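Incident log, structure service

09:12 report received: a user says their structure output differs between two submissions of the same chain.
09:20 pulled the input from the user's history:
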Amino acid sequence: MAPSDSPTAVRALAELLDEHGPLSLEELARACCMEPGWVSERLSAGLLQAEPDGSGWHFSSATVVRARRLARLESTFGADPQLAGLTADLIEEVTALRQRLRQLESQLHG
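09:34 re-ran on a clean worker, output below:
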């Protein structure tokens, strides 16, 4: 896990993004340093989730974090989009399990 993927960094980024509301496709692309076509391809492949509205797609802060992770995995390791998506899924699952473990430990010791 990269330093920018720490749970604290991910939460801080999500909170910052939540203050500004959902992002458009173009804003998400800029946040990932990628082209809008890259975002569209990952959206079509089911690797990213979005909410449609009359003016286009809108992306949540959680999707921004995931998209940045996908972009980093693809560029750093040369992973194809599907492999990057699977890796992102596993990272997210491990993060959720660790958070749940911390909750259970604090309940047992608290």
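09:41 both user submissions now match this output. Likely a transient worker issue. Closing.
09:42 reviewer note: Residues 81-109 form the longest helix (29 residues). The CA atoms of residues 92 and 105 lie 20 Å apart.
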